[in-house]
Amino acid sequence: MRTFIALSTTMLLVIASLSMAAPKPSLTTLSDNQFFILKTTRQFKGGEVEVYSSSGYLVTSHRLIRRKMVIDFKHVSQGTYRIKVKKGANVEEFTFTKN
User: Fold this and answer.
1) What are the φ and ψ backbone dihedral angles of 74, each rounded to 5 degrees?
2) Cα distance from N-terminal residue to C-terminal residue, the chain
3) What per-residue string of b and e applies to 6-19 under the rule 16 or more CB within 10 Å gives b?
4) Pairwise CA distance, residues 3 & 5, whole Å
5) DSSP state of 54
6) Residues 68, 38: contact at Cβ < 8 Å?
7) What are the structural domains of the chain?
8) Integer CA distances (angstroms), 47 to 26, 80, 82, 83, 89, in order
9) What pLDDT, in 10s, does the model give residues 4-24?
């Protein structure tokens, strides 16, 4: 029984240390048919968020003041939009489809 407890404790410590050492994604997103929610790490704070239509036209551009931004697609026409987040040499792109 003591061996089992020692092994369990050791495995939990190893798993916990591995989860802390794993790199976290710099951007996470969540979307539905109306909203695109963008959450970034500190490295993108102060960067630029640009939304392009499917034909390549710039729809809007905003500075990322906080680490979280909600983009409302309620009043735009249906289609696919490209969202580009950039700061310095770091650039991430996402697509959003409004049905």
Assistant:
1) -65, -40
2) 58
3) eeeeeeeeeeeeee
4) 5
5) T
6) yes
7) 24-98 (2.60.40.3080)
8) 13, 23, 16, 13, 11
9) 555 555 554 445 444 444 344
Report the Cα 8 to chain-centroid distance in Å: 34
Q: Is 61 exposed, middle or buried (0-12, 13-18, 19+ CB in 10 A)?
A: exposed
pTM for this entry: 0.69
Burial degree of 5 (CB within 10 A; 0-12, 13-18, 19+): exposed
The one-character DSSP state at 44 is G
CA distances from 13 to 4, 24, 74, 82 (A): 14, 19, 46, 42
The pLDDT of residue 18 is 44
Q: Which residue has the tokens 């909203």?
A: 35
Structure tokens at 97: 């489809």
Q: What is the pLDDT of residues 49-78, one digit of tens each?
A: 999 999 999 999 999 998 889 888 888 889
